[in-house]
Write a structure and sequence with these properties.
With 184 residues, the chain is mostly helical. Helices cover 60% and strands 11% of the residues.
């Protein structure tokens, strides 16, 4: 592949990176396109190590590098702004602490609505599957499963968390067994 076609190919990948990052910012994609950015960076480093004889090719590579660095800095700044606005939004919008569904929490016989909403949002919020499962059905199903587990094990509370298995998110439940308190 000629040097000119390599530069053209990287320019096309940078255009794709801009598009994919804009899709991420719009919420169409869950994660930023880091793999594509790393691949472009690797290709630019490889071209920089190559022996370039023409000053025109060196100039084009320098321009390409500067353009890529500018794009990376802009995207990094936008990511930081997005994270800070999400943190600020969470602090201002929710008056109560947000439940951590990754670590999990304990639920008794009558689950709190905010806990059920947190579980539902973690499982279905970003996936686009929320239209297939409505919140009422989800809450009824989970409440029934909690009651079944409590009856089976004799526990008063159940520890619920959302776990990732490959690309799938699953709701995990475990009975909470209390040890006798020791003095000392």
């Amino acid at each position: 592949m000629s040097f000119d076609s390599q530069i053209t190919s990287v320019e096309e990948d940078m255009r794709l990176l801009r598009i994919e990052f804009d899709r991420f910012l719009a919420g169409a994609v869950r994660h930023p396109p880091e793999e594509l950015r790393f691949r472009i960076e690797k290709r630019i480093r490889a071209m920089r190590r190559a022996r370039i004889r023409s000053s025109v090719e060196r100039f084009r590579l320098g321009t390409l590098e500067a353009s890529f660095n500018t794009l990376s800095e802009r995207q990094g700044r936008q990511l930081r702004e997005l994270e800070s606005s999400k943190t600020l939004r969470r602090k201002t919008v929710t008056s109560e602490p947000r439940l951590d569904t990754d670590r999990g929490f304990e639920i008794g016989a009558k689950p709190d609505r905010s806990a059920m909403e947190a579980l539902y949002e973690s499982l279905y919020g970003d996936s686009g599957r929320a239209s297939k499962v409505d919140f009422g059905s989800f809450e009824k199903h989970v409440t029934k499963q909690i009651a079944r587990l409590q009856k089976k094990t004799g526990c008063a509370k159940v520890h619920l968390r959302v776990a990732r298995e490959g690309e799938t998110l699953k709701l995990k439940a475990k009975p909470v067994r209390r040890n006798k308190q020791t003095t000392g």
